[in-house]
Write a structure and sequence with these properties.
The chain is about 40% helix and about 20% strand. It has seven helices and nine strands. α5 runs antiparallel to α6 and α6 runs parallel beside α7. The longest helix has 24 residues. It is globular.
Amino acid sequence: MEEMLTRLNLRRRHLNVILKLDLKSAFDKVSWSFIKAVLAAMGFSEDFCLIVSNILEATRLSVLLNGQPDGFFSPTCGVRQGDPLSLALFAIVINAFSQSLKGGFRSGRIEGFSMPRHCHQVTHLAYADDIVIFTTTKKGSLRQLSGCIDSFLAASGLSLNQQKSSAIHAKSAQRADRARVKRILGFGSARLPLLYLGCWLDCGRSRDGSSSR
């Protein structure tokens, strides 16, 4: 992550931009049918998929009314937070999105940061529902990325929190670059330092003044 921040301001035809995605109530909204479809696509047996389906559908929730539980109801989506199985299932869901992104970058439809020769291409990072994408302000690339995000959201039942999702632009970014990202993706501009997994990161230095390299 720190290395990618140092590459944000590199001069190139299409400027680099870091996109931070915020999924709205992700654990509560993920589609059960999508979970089952992804498990099947990954090669899990029909019996295993049925077991997972039964576990999801057996979930019962209750609400407190004046401090007392009042009845139960059955949800139709989402996974229970705190359940070890839920963490694994959600990771599998995000991995499906990761594979879709990877395909877009590999095909060249989505443009990534330029990297040193013989260096591994880092296109995105994902930890649970904390997703960061490293791309450029090229119009065609942004449209392809938007389509990739929209397809995943439609299939998974998830949605983006547009108010919390943001774009961190290069220092040389012009108003037109920022407007293009806003128009295509709906992400407003943000500034460094970037809060990532509880840590504030900046180009070269962390918020506490120590080197981030």
